[in-house]
Amino acid sequence: MEKYDLCVIGGGPAGYAAAMRAIDFDKKVILIEKDKLGGGGIYNGALASKTMWELSSRYRKVYDELGKDRADRNLDITYDEVKRTIDEAIFDRKFQLTCHLRIIHAETGLITYEKGTASFINNHEIKISKQDGSEQVVYAENTIIAAGSRPRHLPNIEVDEKIILTSDGLLELDDFPKSMVIIGAGVIGCEYATMYSNFGQTKVYIIDRADRILPFEDDDVSELISKNLEEKGVTIHRKANLKRIEVIDGMVEYEIDGVNGSEVIRVEKALLSIGRVPNVESLHIENAGVKMSKRGVHIGDVDTQTNIPNIYAVGDISGRIPLVNVGEREARHAVVKMFADFPVKPINYENVSTIMFLNPVVASVGANEKILREKNIPYRVAKVDYSTIARAITMRQTEGFFKLIVSDDDEMKILGMRAAGYHASSAIQSIALLMYMDKGIDELAHMIHPHPSIVEGVQEAARMLLGKSIYKSAVFRDKLKCYSCREGVCKPLNIIDESKHIKFEEVARHFHEGKED
Ligand SMILES: Cc1cc2nc3c(=O)[nH]c(=O)nc-3n(C[C@H](O)[C@H](O)[C@H](O)COP(=O)(O)OP(=O)(O)OC[C@H]3O[C@@H](n4cnc5c(N)ncnc54)[C@H](O)[C@@H]3O)c2cc1C
Ligand SMILES: NC(=O)c1ccc[n+]([C@@H]2O[C@H](COP(=O)([O-])OP(=O)(O)OC[C@H]3O[C@@H](n4cnc5c(N)ncnc54)[C@H](O)[C@@H]3O)[C@@H](O)[C@H]2O)c1
């Protein structure tokens, strides 16, 4: 029986990162993948969907800038063309990962790649069941489970991936559906609602049982995204209870109880996007003695380690935060914990940055107001509207905001940021780094940022909290906000004496009437 220092189960982003980090420690590794190298990081997941989002956003921008009449005549796009672009992106990434793996194998002899389904015989022996029916058993000193997740189904909804689909089947369609209902207005639901409505060939309906889309986000984020979806013709069913959904004459008929009472609607396709579940079943973790977490929903409770000391769980299967960047981080961490001869600090999940690919992009790090209110943590907020940022004005993209959240004390420790708007994703990293380095906002306020740049808006937010912003929140009240919140009560900060307050609108009218320059 072949022996390895490390067996990695699953060749998605987490598994691949684990295998490559183990090479750094000169360890002998076997990477087992049952389907395609790259997993959900490439296929039907991050890379594929973001390629579609990029194309749909560029398409929509050109469409809007040309104006409907000209755009309708000149801007035809077919689903085949969309899929071709996605396939090209998939190929590029797949090609890179595969060639890289092969070269590492040839040059170091440390890594073996096996295609097959892995399952535990015990905590050191793993069986690989191959597509040709053959089986192989390997011995591993340590194992990392990185078997990922799959879309959650509902017991009363039969998914055929042709008419009723999940994100696994959506990109296999032959054409743009004329109409589609999306069940679940979380990240996947809202991202696909954005993409399909951007292309303008699909009437999109979106259902959530919560009272708003993206229910885990603050109201301002949710409202901005809802407004833009609705402007593009998306119907949002809020607080909706899906009573029935069935395929009738090749069409999807669904019935909801919502704020408008009971409604029955027929559409061409349905997308189910109500969360994901870990791929545990094929692994037979019980043979190795690995237990599900205390909550029973994931494995690997203690800083990526399972209850069996030589077995770790990383990425989506760990059930913490299902993101590529988190999976890769957990994977690298688990390998270091396993092989390093120095102490390793536990992973800090407080400063994970994410981007939701919507209209506009929403980038996040750390806590939002909702989380802090739920935990009863006092906080201060500075919110800067894009319309006050020079770069946004030059881009003629003035929709969006930066919301910087800090602790409600003299230290003003950064607790989180939400950035919604053009280039928002490139602005989040400076805050993530400050959080990682446990720094306050002083450093940010004093740096000299390039001009004009969108990150000047983040800096202005920091300055506003320190009471030294260029624009004062008491003047541009609808564009700048600075307040503190404690036990559910929020109070404005930096306010000019109310009795002396001059309305901005009055000055603006005077400016226009006097034709001042
Ligand atoms: C539509 C969509 C969009 C997304 N967009 C983003 C995004 O923009 N940014 C982001 O960070 N994340 C995004 N995600 C999430 C991201 O794709 C996942 O978090 C990431 O792929 C998880 O990586 P993983 O390695 O843990 O699992 P996976 O990528 O699921 O890979 C697990 C692999 O394990 C294999 N496997 C399973 N069981 C076995 C077994 N018994 N033996 C051998 N192999 C096995 C599977 O075939 C699979 O290849 C998106 C997800 C979806 C669905
Ligand atoms: N850009 C990104 O980073 C990105 C993109 C896509 C996916 N992802 C990852 O994938 C994960 C899964 O995404 P997701 O959208 O499937 O899950 P999600 O947790 O983001 O959203 C699920 C939504 O479904 C709703 N819901 C649950 N049960 C329902 C029911 N019975 N009827 C109606 N609505 C119901 C919930 O209220 C929620 O809004 C995300 O948590 C995210 O980490 C990330």
TrEMBL record:
Specify which residues bind NAD(+) according to the UniProt entry for this protein: G184, A185, G186, V187, I188, G189, C190, E191, G275
Under the GO molecular function aspect, what terms does this record hold? dihydrolipoyl dehydrogenase (NADH) activity; flavin adenine dinucleotide binding
Catalytic residues, chain numbering? H451
Q: What start-end ranges are recorded for coiled-coil regions in this protein?
A: none
Could you confirm whether the keyword 4Fe-4S appears in this record? no
Keyword field contains Nucleotide-binding = yes
Query: Can you list the GO cellular component terms from the UniProt entry?
Result: oxoglutarate dehydrogenase complex
Pfam families linked: Pyr_redox_2, Pyr_redox_dim
Please list the GO biological process terms of this entry: 2-oxoglutarate metabolic process
According to the entry, every stretch annotated as the Pyridine nucleotide-disulphide oxidoreductase dimerisation domain falls at: 352-462
Residues noted as binding FAD in the record, renumbered to the chain: K50, D316
Please list the residue ranges annotated as the FAD/NAD(P)-binding domain.
4-331
Give the record's cofactor note, including how many are bound. Answer: Binds 1 FAD per subunit.
Per its UniProt record, what Gene3D superfamilies does this chain match?
Answer: 3.30.390.30, FAD/NAD(P)-binding domain
Cofactors needed by this protein, per the record, are: FAD
Q: Per UniProt, which keywords does this protein have? A: FAD, Flavoprotein, NAD, Nucleotide-binding, Oxidoreductase
Q: Which family does this protein fall into?
A: Belongs to the class-I pyridine nucleotide-disulfide oxidoreductase family.
The record, for PANTHER family, names: DEHYDROGENASE, PUTATIVE-RELATED (PTHR22912:SF103), DISULFIDE OXIDOREDUCTASE (PTHR22912)
Name-wise, this protein is: NAD(P)/FAD-dependent oxidoreductase
**Which species is listed as the source?**
Vicingus serpentipes
